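Students often ask why inverse folding is considered easier than folding. One informal answer: many sequences map to the same fold, so there is more than one right answer. In these notes we will look at a single instance of the problem. The structure comes first.
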C-alpha cells in the first residue's frame, strides 16, 4: 500500500493567522511535523527579508528568496562564518552543555569548528588540504568499492517484511562511505552515524539522553580520531582524509580543537545530508508514483532523480552568517553583528527561479540548479561524493527491486537545520 499522495506541501492553517512580526520560521516542532511549507511560501510572498527579534535562537533575519540568499552566500567579506557558527544556535541550556563538556575535559568552541566555521584566508588553507580526497579522480577510485558495498547492503534486506529503511540502508550506506574516506576501522563504521546523531541532537531527541551523554560520545569520538591522527602522522602518506591532514604542512600543525572541529564537520557533513537524501528519494518517489514509474521505465534518469531529490529534500534547511558591516538587502538594513539565516529549503521552492517548484519532477531540464549545496567559498566540498553514492545505490536498487513501498509517514528529525528522517518503515514485496 502506498502512502496517500499529497502533492506539494503539508498544510498548517495556523501559520496564516500569525502576525508576520511574530513568525519564527526556525521552530523545530514545525519541521518535525512537516508544516513549514505554507510558512515559507508566505514569507517569500509577504516578507522575504524577515526579522525575528526574539526566539529560542536569539534574534535573526530570515532570507527566503533565491536572489537574496545568493547575495549573502557569495559575499563572504560582509557575511562571516567564523564569528558565531553556521547554524542557528540552540541557546537554551547553554550552561548545562558547557558544564557537561568541561567536566569530561572535552574542549569545545561554541558554534563549532572546522573550516566551515572559518573565514578567509584560514578557510581556504584547510579546505584545500582535504579537497583531493573528494575530487573526481579519488571518487572514481572509490566507486567500485561503494558499488560492491551497496550490493551487500541491498542483498541483505528482508523481502516481504516491513523494516526501517533509515536504519538498514541510509545509515549503513553513509557509514560505509565515510569509513572508506577516513580509512576508519570498517567493523566499527556504525559509530560514525551514531556520533553524528549525538553531535546534532539535543537531549530528548535522537539517541541523546542528557548533556552528559552527549559529552561522553564526543569524548569517545575525539579519542578514536586522535588515535588515527597519531597513527597516520608517522605513517606513509595516503589518500584518506586523516592522512591528507597529517601530511599537509599547512594542516599538520593544526590545534587539537581545529582537528576535532574538522572531524565533526566531516562526520556530520557526510552523514546526515546523504543519509536523508537516500531516505528522501524513497519517500518522494512514493509520494509521486508517476515519477517512480518513469524511473523504472528509464533507469538513465537516476542522475537527474538524485539531483531533483537533493533540491526537493534540501537536507540542510539553512546556513547562517553574521554580518560584518551594515548591508542592505531587499530594502532592509542588516546591521553589523546581526545574524542572517539563508533558508535554502525555501530558496529551492522560489517560484520565480524554479518552474513549478512544489512538483517533484525527475525530468527537470536543469536538475543541478538548486541551492542545497550552498554557493560561494563554502559550497559543499563533498557534493560529488554525495551524488556518486546516491547514483550508485539507485542503480543497484533498480537492478534488484521493482518497488520499495513506504508503509506509513516517517518520523522526522526535530531540527530546523538537518531536514530529515529518524525512521521510515518500508516493505520490499519482491525481488526482480
Ligand atoms: C546531499 C548531500 C549534501 C548536502 C545537501 C550538503 C550540503 C552542504 C552545504 C549547504 C554546505 C555549505 C556550508 C556553508 O555555506 O556554510 C556544505 C559544506 C560542506 N560539506 Fe556538504 N553536503 C552534502 C554532502 C557532503 C558530504 C558527503 C561531505 C563529505 C564527504 C560533505 C562535506 C562538507 C564540508 C567539509 C563542507 C564545508 C565546506 C567549506 O566550508 O568550505 N558534504 N555542505
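Output (designed amino acids):
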Amino acid at each position: 500500500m502506498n502512502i496517500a499522495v499529497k502533492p506539494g506541501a503539508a498544510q498548517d492553517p495556523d501559520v496564516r493567522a500569525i502576525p508576520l512580526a511574530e513568525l519564527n520560521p526556525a521552530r523545530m516542532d514545525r519541521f518535525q511535523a512537516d508544516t513549514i511549507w505554507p510558512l515559507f511560501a508566505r514569507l517569500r510572498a509577504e516578507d522575504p527579508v524577515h526579522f525575528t527579534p526574539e526566539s529560542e535562537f536569539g534574534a535573526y533575519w530570515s532570507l527566503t528568496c533565491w536572489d537574496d540568499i545568493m547575495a549573502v552566500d557569495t559575499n563572504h567579506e560582509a557575511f562571516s562564518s567564523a564569528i558565531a557558527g553556521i547554524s542557528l544556535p540552540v541557546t537554551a541550556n547553554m550552561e548545562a552543555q558547557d558544564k557537561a563538556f568541561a567536566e569530561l575535559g572535552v574542549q569545545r568552541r561554541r558554534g563549532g569548528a572546522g573550516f566551515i566555521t572559518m573565514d578567509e584566508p584560514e578557510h581556504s588553507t584547510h579546505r584545500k588540504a582535504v579537497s583531493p580526497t573528494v575530487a573526481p579522480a579519488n571518487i572514481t577510485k572509490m566507486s567500485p568499492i561503494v558499488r560492491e558495498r551497496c550490493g551487500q547492503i541491498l542483498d541483505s534486506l528482508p523481502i516481504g517484511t516491513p523494516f526501517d529503511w533509515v536504519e538498514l540502508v541510509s545509515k549503513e550506506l553513509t557509514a560505509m562511505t565515510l569509513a572508506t574516506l577516513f580509512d576508519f576501522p570498517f567493523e566499527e563504521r556504525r559509530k560514525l552515524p551514531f556520533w553524528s546523531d549525538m553531535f546534532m541532537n539535543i537531549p530528548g531527541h535522537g539517541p541523546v539522553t542528557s548533556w552528559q551523554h552527549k559529552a561522553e560520545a564526543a569524548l569517545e569520538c575525539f579519542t578514536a580520531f586522535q588515535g588515527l591522527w597519531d597513527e597516520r602522522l608517522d605513517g606513509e602518506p595516503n589518500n584518506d582524509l586523516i592522512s591528507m591532514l597529517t601530511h599537509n604542512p599547512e594542516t599538520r600543525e593544526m590545534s587539537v580543537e581545529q582537528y576535532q572541529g574538522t572531524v565533526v564537520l566531516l562526520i556530520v557533513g557526510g552523514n546526515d545530508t546523504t543519509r536523508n537524501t537516500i531516505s528522501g528519494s524513497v519517500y518522494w518517489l512514493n509520494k509521486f508514483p508517476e515519477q517512480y514509474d518513469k524511473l523504472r521505465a528509464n533507469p538513465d534518469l537516476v542522475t537527474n532523480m538524485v539531483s531533483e531529490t537533493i533540491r526537493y529534500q534540501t537536507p540542510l534547511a539553512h546556513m547562517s552568517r553574521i554580518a560584518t558591516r551594515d548591508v542592505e538587502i531587499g530594502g532592509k538594513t542588516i546591521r553589523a553583528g546581526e545574524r542572517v539565516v539563508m533558508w535554502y529549503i525555501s530558496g529551492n521552492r522560489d517560484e520565480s527561479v524554479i518552474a513549478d517548484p512544489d512538483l517533484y519532477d525527475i525530468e527537470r531540464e536543469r536538475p543541478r540548479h538548486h541551492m542545497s549545496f550552498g554557493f560561494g567559498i563554502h559550497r559543499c566540498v563533498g557534493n560529488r561524493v554525495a551524488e556518486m553514492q546516491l547514483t550508485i545505490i539507485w542503480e543497484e536498487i533498480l537492478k534488484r527491486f521493482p518497488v520499495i513501498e513506504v508503509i506509513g509517514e516517517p518520523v522526522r528529525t526535530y531540527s530546523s537545520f538537518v531536514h530529515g528522517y529518524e525512521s521510515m518503515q518500508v516493505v520490499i514485496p519482491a525481488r526482480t
